[in-house]
């Protein structure tokens, strides 16, 4: 009995090999698609712009009068644009507090939306 290649056999090989390769354990793993990734440079001007936008939008919606101080940490998530989850230090009168803000950004559409803004409680 000889093994002959047929289109079905080739299709199975083409379909299964990438799956096995992706499932194979390795020392290097890429970012999880859709997962949150740390922002390496929280002092990047674009990140500061996103944070300032978050504080301004919160002030309009609340209404409040917070003043942006700095970004203390952040993560991003790429899904139909980028979600930014930032911990922002903001001044409320004479007190500085940390807030968690989530901003959805799609710069190619000139779209930016504050989706969450809440005090950080520990």
Automatic annotation (TrEMBL):
Pfam families: SQAPI (PF16845). One of its GO terms (molecular function) is cysteine-type endopeptidase inhibitor activity. Residues 31-120 form the Cystatin domain. It comes from the Eukaryota. The keyword Signal applies. This is Cystatin domain-containing protein. Residues 1-23 form the signal peptide. InterPro entries: Cystatin_dom (IPR000010), Cystatin_sf (IPR046350). Keywords: Protease inhibitor, Signal, Thiol protease inhibitor. The keyword RNA-binding does not apply.
